[in-house]
Design a protein that fits this description.
Layout lengths: L15 H37 L3
Length: 55
């Protein structure tokens, strides 16, 4: 017997204040993601440079 998956859909109707809060949270999440991505990219670039450097 398999697992039964069930989903529900809800329509969101946020108020103007909630729309502003959602936009703020999305902006903060994007800022944090981009900061983390920049750090990971910098580390990977550094590792690549160290690998290519002659000893």
């Amino acid at each position: 017997m398999g697992t039964v998956l069930q989903a529900y859909r809800f329509v969101l109707g946020p108020s103007e204040a909630q729309v502003a809060a959602l936009a703020s949270h999305c902006g903060a999440a994007r800022f944090a993601f981009n900061g983390g991505l920049a750090r990971v990219t910098a580390v990977l670039d550094q590792r690549g440079a160290e690998r290519l450097r002659p000893r």
